[in-house]
Amino acid sequence: MIGATGGIGLFAVQLAAALGARVVATATEEDEGYLRGLGATDTVDYRRADVVEETLRLVPGGVDVVVDLVNRGEGLTDTARAARPRGRLVSPLFGPAELERDVSPVYIGSFQALPGDLEDLAARAADGRLQVEIGARYLLDNAVQAVVDFAGKHIRGKIVITTA
């Protein structure tokens, strides 16, 4: 999972692990323990290793599903190399309609939640089965800085903007 410590990734790691998946997640050295605590089986330090090559070293045949929450467009073509033949690449960002080795792209940028989906996530968060990490808080007056930091800094978890 590329982007595992971000606002979406931290939920995806937990939900995939809860379903019994082996989760290989990108992480800095500082975030490795955090992600393992969320359920990641393996981590790849994207600052020190090629994520695709390291994933293929850990899972030689390729993974069933690659979740890439960071790359977009043609950048997803490289990421898809970590998937096994007939595997899937899932991204909230859009990219090529077709990928090599019969890897199917699934772009969820316009995904609509079904009735009950959000209630289930809220219940998991309320009873502790889904951890929510707030990485930074900003007052509404500093909303522009929040957007700048979101785009340019590595912030683990969600960014929250408050009125007080």
Mean pLDDT over all positions: 93
Largest β-sheet summary: 3 strands, parallel
How many β-strand runs? 7
Number of helices: 6
Assembly type: single chain
Helix content: 25-40%
Explain how this protein is built.
- With 164 residues, the protein is of the alpha/beta class.
- 30% of the residues lie in helices and 21% in strands.
- It contains six helices and seven strands.
- The protein has helices at 9-18, 32-38, 51-58, 75-79, 117-126, 143-152; strands at 24-26, 42-44, 63-67, 83-91, 104-107, 134-139, 158-162.
- The protein has a three-stranded parallel beta sheet with strand order 3-4-5, with no helix packed on it. Strands 1-2 form a two-stranded parallel sheet.
- Helix 6 links the parallel strand 6 (134-139) and strand 7 (158-162).
- The radius of gyration is 16 Å and the shape is globular.
- The relative contact order is 0.14.
- The mean pLDDT is 93.
